[in-house]
Hints:
The chain is an alpha+beta fold. The protein has 6 helices and 6 strands, in the order H-H-H-H-E-E-E-H-E-H-E-E. It folds into 2 domains: 31-170, Helix Hairpins; 178-277, CATH 3.30.1330.60. Helix 2 runs antiparallel to helix 3 (73-111), helix 2 (31-62) packs parallel to helix 4 and helix 3 (73-111) packs antiparallel against helix 4. The radius of gyration is 45 Å and the shape is rod-shaped.
Amino acid sequence: MLSLRSLSFALAAWCANLPACDxxxxxxxxxxxxxxxxxxxxxKTRLGELRARQAVLGGxxxxxxxxxxxxxxxxxxxIADLQGKLSELEGIVAALDQSTSQVAVDIDATLQKRDKIAxxxxxxxxxxxxxxGYAAALSPFDQLEQRLPEAESATSRHLATVAAEDQRLVRxxxxxxxxxxxxxxxxxxxxxxxNPGSRASLDRLxxxxxxxxxxxxxxxxxxxxxxxxSGKVLALARAEAVKAFLIASGIPADRVATGPDPERVQGRExxxxxxxxxxxxxxxxxxxxxxVVPAGVPQPAMPPPPVPVPAPVPAPVVERVPQxxxxxx
Length: 329
């Protein structure tokens, strides 16, 4: 028979080999919960990237500002279409955001039931729904990005053309010359201010006329049948209409003259502005109070120079001899 001591050692050895004797706490593994812990943040990250991309595209579309009066129907139609596509992106991103939130609610509710099979199915379905929504959202973004360069390039060309024209007007204001405003439109003898191209040309002429106080210009107009008397009357009336616009916009009346256009360009109606007195060159200030005579007005003859007056001859200096002081006894 075994002694009590031997039995104790044998029992201890047997118990040490049993897994049941390991009293360490057990960790329950939930694969669905682990998958959702990675999928949830990933979905939010992709949504944030789409919103950042949307902001960049919105800025690019907003920068497609054509100068007033640009007549480019294809480009205007393209910009309008891009603006519509940009508005659609807001709805697409909002729908994806709502879908992501709903998937999160559904999966969290399933995980609370501690049904591993149902949780795994919910996570798989949520992943498929999120991936499908994200892929569907990418297509409109890609289409908008592919069409933007065409509009940006055309807009840049128009801006460069307007900038070059402004530089030309600055040069004419200081060096003199003519400005041909073929885009100005009329309704009879009245300016057509509702026409975008006409209004843009007149606004550019207004900035030109405000270049300096010294600037003096003459406005002429040409209509078909210039040799006819009625054509001359209409041409002068149109020139007066342009002058009236400039005066109403703040240009002093004595700085704008009108007259008939001596050119006889048949079939080409236009307005021409001729610089009579240009602005001072850049860096040279106009003298304060300088009198400027408009072009075509003869200047008065210069007065003769004053006759020099001889300087007065100084009187001779008389030296005085001091007298002796009388002595009193």
